[in-house]
Amino acid sequence: MSRLFRLLLVMALLVTGFALPVSAQDDAPVVAVLTPYLAQPGTQFMVEAFQAAAEAKGWTVNVIDTAGDVAALNSRLQDVVTQGVDAIVINVDPQQVPALADAVAAGIPVFGMDAGSVPELVVNVTSNGYAMAAETATYVVDRLNGVGRVVMFIFPPYPPVQKRGVIAEAIFNNTPDIEIIDQVVPDVTDGGIADSRARMEAILAANPEPGSINAVWAAWDQPALGALQAIEAAGRQDEGIIIVGIDANPQAVEAIAQGGNFEASVAQDFEGIGSTTADLVERYLNGETLTQTTVYVPTTLVTRENARVE
Amino acid sequence: MSVPQTVGVRPARKRRAFSVARWLRTFGTLIGFLIIVAIFWQQRPTTFMTVTNWLNITQQVSILGVVAFTMTVVMVVGDFDLSVGTMASLVGIIAGTLFQNEQPVAVAVVAGLLAGALGGLINGFLVSYVGISAFVTTLGTMTIFGGLALYISGGTTIFGRVIPEAFGNFGREGLVLGSITIPNLTLLALAVLVLTWFILEQTVFGRRLYAIGGNREASRLAGVRVRFLRLLAFVVSGLGAAAAGLMLASRLASANPKQGDGLMLNAIAAVFLGMTMSEEGEPHVLGTLVGVLILGVLANGLTQLNIDSYIQQILTGGIIILAVTLSSLSRRGQ
Fold this sequence. Notes:
The complex is a heterodimer of chains A (310) and B (334). Chain A is α/β, with parallel strands linked by helices and 310 residues long. In chain A, 44% of the residues lie in helices and 18% in strands. Chain A folds into two domains: 21-127 and 270-297, Response regulator (Rossmann fold, 3-Layer(aba) Sandwich), CATH 3.40.50; 129-267, Rossmann fold (3-Layer(aba) Sandwich). Chain A is built from ten helices and twelve strands. Chain A is elongated and about 70 Å long. Chain B has a domain at 46-261. Chain B is mainly α. Chain B is globular, with a radius of gyration of 21 Å. The longest helix of chain B has 27 residues, at 226-252. The interface between A and B is large, with 43 and 53 residues.
């Protein structure tokens, strides 16, 4: 490499540095979206729907994914505050974002997109965990005509899932002829399916009479899938045991579409959460005062009729 | 100075009055850094070159800085430490777990630092006395520390009221000087920088570490306690990782079993960027500082320019390779 060439390279770098045009800084609102979870499908749907809605409104959207790094998310939040964006949207547990205080101090509104509720947020848009549990629990009660023995899979250590169990239990207890025969807290370190299957196998063994178990209510899909495997492995899939889960993950939707024991789950409307967040940002930027600090986007009960395998 | 001149055997080079290559080699990375700063300044004239933003940047890089500065010590000896990231995560979890058991901040800090020193001792012992390569040893301990962090925490994040307010506030507050506030984390990183610089550049201990990195066998023959000093270098990086883990937990007011994992690769990148600035291609802690600042300024500036975060990653990687390429090309030109 000749010396001249090297010199030219340095000169070229210097010239590029100063010759770049100043990038557009027009009056359209700039909104920063920060998440560490963009690799997860639910987050992706939310962010894409937000972007689509925001771009239709003529905003500049800057999506920042810190790939699981919450410390970096705090740093980037500080940066967009310094940059002076018009609004910030976060999709992360706000309790881990002390840098929110910087946004508040700078008077920049922060919106939660399935984040969690803290006073620093203008509003958080999410799904209602209580309502989701009510949908599947009432589905079970209706399908059994109010009479039957139910196994529950719950998980009290994780607050969003704990909420679901409380509601389902209340609904079953409020139905005189529904009996909760067991409340199982599966070991989730293996993902939740394998241990749930083992626990369900034990329950099936303890209740050998056909018709002695009428339904399995699971607070999320993995235990429901484990229970399904146990029932099929025991050859008891024709006893009419109804299984319901929550979240409508792809594996669950597939099982529901096949029309076996797994009959229902609940899908969160991630696109709806994204576009609703965009609408609320718009209303706030237009000067409206938002009184509701949490906005719930309706969820959909997924059954054989509407289960689509994607 | 007890190290004889034979150490770091290198044929004496004829000194040239001025050479573009030599100049580029030593200052190329620094110039690159200044160009990056100039671009951001020109693109965001009102927000980038401000005291607040630069204080933010120093706070943002403070944790990476502590890991990179102490990683420099290990790399001076010719080893490296892959376990620093998961060690930082583990120490955060240790502190968080102690908080859950109502222990005071002092206990958590001391326990965290002890864990870091112990981890460094294990690494150093395996590398230096048992003779396993640093890569394999620290790859193994990296996995062990990461597993321990997950095991102790049960995979969950420790946050909320269990974290003492004083601990969480430390990472947010700073030294108020009139209208500006110098973040505590910045001051802490500065202290580690000065200490590491002093140890490496101003003490016999530091000179010996460079001698070992230059030629391990010659150092041993010259009477340097190579094995013990290599072990100590790992203890330093373990302590640095522990300090970083505590700083991270304080900044986030929470402890997640994976929150420090990403520090390791960035720290090694920062040391390599810094090495491009040294005449002999050795790691120096002031060079590491420039490396850390390049990474921090890039993240800050590119975010302010609304550059897609995936493009940011590609640009950052490209710039690291460009810097090292320029440096090695100019060295080959000799």
